[in-house]
Design a protein that fits this description.
Strand order of the largest sheet: 1-2
Largest sheet: 2 strands, antiparallel
Oligomer: single chain
Helix content: 40-55%
Strand content: under 5%
């Protein structure tokens, strides 16, 4: 039995399948679940993946300093975010008009960007507005939690129609 602890670089494959399936439900909304419609959540997920990948690539691993963040520790242990608390940073907020073809394009770009994870230094990092500095492995955890969080919201929007 092998003890392989290295992360899978297709760690969001199942989530990408769900995103693809939900694109056809892009106009669904339910204000009791979320102020935003399905397209907003999908666009936000993809923008977040792409921005983080590019930030990690652009970082200087020599400048990384490990840090403790209580909020991050709690959220990572819980594996989800509380709904309606945080506000998405401007850079990952969707535009007013979200085109279906843009969702498909962003998803393909996200898949390509995630391939770069394999070659990133373990100290590649980016600064998260609530969780401080996230290295490569913490970024992977964040992307999993964040993507699944928004997909749960999308599921609830579609389910409650």
């Amino acid at each position: 039995m092998t003890n392989d602890t290295s992360p899978s670089y297709s760690f969001l494959d199942a989530e990408f399948d769900r995103i693809k399936d939900y694109i056809s439900e892009r106009d669904a909304s339910n204000h009791r679940v979320s102020k935003a419609d399905v397209a907003w959540h999908l666009d936000h997920i993809l923008k977040t993946i792409n921005v983080i990948c590019k930030s990690l690539e652009a970082s200087n691993p020599c400048e990384y300093k490990s840090n403790f963040n209580l909020t991050r520790a709690v959220i990572y242990a819980w594996g989800d975010f509380p709904r309606g608390i945080a506000k998405a940073p401007r850079i990952v907020r969707p535009p007013d008009e979200i085109l279906t073809e843009d969702l498909h394009r962003q998803m393909e770009r996200a898949k390509e960007n995630l391939k770069t994870f394999q070659n990133l230094d373990s100290k590649a990092h980016f600064e998260h507005p609530y969780f401080d500095i996230l290295d490569k492995n913490r970024s992977i955890q964040f992307l999993k939690i964040h993507t699944r969080h928004h997909l749960k919201i999308v599921r609830d929007i579609v389910k409650k129609q």
